[in-house]
């Protein structure tokens, strides 16, 4: 079983739609959680951290469920510029901040 | 410009040749990392370095060598390239022992081994 699993998609949605991605992780010792965004042929960039209480950044909302070991990302009012691959990332401390990446979920927003 | 840079951005080589990918960061981050990204896989850690002259293996180190004589540079060498090493390679810095400390990625090097 992969340590971090995501639905690869693609999720094809119209502009203005609300879309949600889920991610599951296998290591209960995981301590920090992030969503990264990766545009086609570009480097991953941090989108947002995920906190136990849930957090929001503009149109983006992230949730963490430690009991079920899953993380979610909700995007409201999708824009064309949201088209990208979203990487779920979990970390745990083992001498350094070790990042474990999911393979990513691809989102395509169309007019 | 400040940040993290990689060179070359694109490289074509032949099986058996030695290839070195360069990574340079200007933030003075103590930690640096090398990942490879292949279709269907998440980024996988090859090697990391906690400081100058301190390096350690990641998840997929076989066939790779790293060094870190200066804090700002972290070159990755493929001693004898194989076709299975065709991939996109990302260097990153940051992400030390502070759990919320993120990693910043370079633009990547696309390597094709023929």
What does this structure look like?
- The complex is a heterodimer of chains A (about 110) and B (about 110).
- By secondary structure, chain A is an all-beta fold.
- Helices cover about 0% and strands about 60% of the residues of chain A.
- In chain A, the strands form 2 sheets. In chain A, strands 2, 4, 5, 9, 10 and 11 form a 6-stranded mixed β-sheet that branches. Chain A has a 5-stranded antiparallel β-sheet with strand order 1-3-8-7-6, with no helix packed on it.
- By secondary structure, chain B is mostly beta strands.
- In chain B, strands 2, 4, 5, 6, 9, 10 and 11 form a 7-stranded mixed β-sheet that branches.
- The interface of A and B includes residues 8, 31, 97, 101 and 102 of A.
Taking pLDDT < 50 over at least 5 consecutive residues as the criterion, the unreliable ranges of chain B are: none
**Number of helical stretches of at least 4 residues of chain A:** 0
Averaged pLDDT of chain A: 91
Order of helices and strands of chain B: EEEEEEEEEEE
Total strand count of chain A, please? 11
Question: What is the chain-wise order of helices and strands of chain A?
Answer: EEEEEEEEEEE
User: Which geometry of chain A do the CA atoms define?
Assistant: globular
């Amino acid at each position: 079983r992969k340590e971090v699993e995501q639905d690869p998609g693609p999720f094809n949605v119209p502009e203005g739609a609300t879309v949600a991605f889920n991610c599951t992780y296998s290591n209960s010792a995981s301590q920090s959680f992030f969503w990264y965004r990766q545009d086609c042929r570009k480097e991953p960039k941090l989108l947002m951290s995920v906190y136990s209480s849930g957090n929001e950044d503009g149109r983006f909302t992230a949730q963490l469920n430690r009991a079920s070991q899953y993380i979610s990302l909700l995007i409201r009012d999708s824009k064309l510029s949201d088209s990208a691959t979203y990487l779920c990332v979990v970390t745990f401390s083992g001498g350094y901040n070790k990042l474990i990446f999911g393979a990513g979920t691809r989102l395509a927003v169309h007019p | 410009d400040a940040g993290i840079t990689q060179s070359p951005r694109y490289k074509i080589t032949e099986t058996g040749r030695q290839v070195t990918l360069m990574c340079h960061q200007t933030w003075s981050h103590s930690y640096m990392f090398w990942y490879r990204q292949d279709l269907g896989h998440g980024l996988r850690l090859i090697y990391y370095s906690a400081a100058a002259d301190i390096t350690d293996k990641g998840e997929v180190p076989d066939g790779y060598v790293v060094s870190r004589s200066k804090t700002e540079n972290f070159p990755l060498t493929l001693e004898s390239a194989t076709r299975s090493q065709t991939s996109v390679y990302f260097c990153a810095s940051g992400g030390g022992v502070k759990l919320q400390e993120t990693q910043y990625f370079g633009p990547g090097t696309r390597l094709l081994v023929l």
